[in-house]
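WARN retry 2 of 3 for item q-0093 after timeout on previous attempt; input resubmitted unchanged.
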Amino acid sequence: MKIIITAGGTSERIDDVRTITNSSTGRLGYAIGEAFAKKSGDELERIYYLHGTRAAYVEDEKVIPVAIEGVMDLQEELVRILTEEKIDAVIHAMAVSDYRVSEVTTLDRIRGTEDPDNKADLTGNKISSDIDDLVIHMTRAPKVINSIKKLSPETVLVGFKLLSGVPHEELIDVGYNLMKKNDCDFVLANDLREIGRDFHKGYLIHKDKTYDIMENNEQIADMIVRRVIEACR
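OK item q-0093 returned
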């Protein structure tokens, strides 16, 4: 069995030293990677572990770590691996940016009120910190999860959906809709208010909308390993 795990968060560059990112730590993806490496035995041949640059990766002889910065890096690596090899499962736990930096400008430049004799210098590898009204224009990033089953229809796909402070029924409905939209086999739905340092409640939704309930990262990881191996057999 060959699998791909994505973990951590993507970062979109503003310049060579600044990025826009999210708060994902990659801890859940790491727990899933460890569980696969330790508990799937001889059934596991290889894990391609695509991780954000600030997230730790699982160190194991079966793990090939691939550092990912932005959304386009993630898409490129997924396309490469899925077209070059037969991948049995993708566990897409990475928190992927919804937007990419298109350009950097200033409010005065947008309004047409910029002083021609005192133009803001937006060139070079690092934008000047003397600019008072920097404006970052972002455009929608591609939804990477949309392409996975199109590239590899037989691959078992686990999607993830994080919401914050919603009713339980809405959380399950949104996770289930993500499943239908992207042809996932399972979706792990969770609510930010049910996640803490020592607890992480998760609901692994099945295609019939039933779901497994887990109380922490280790239980979530173990359940995903169990369900994915069952689905791959």
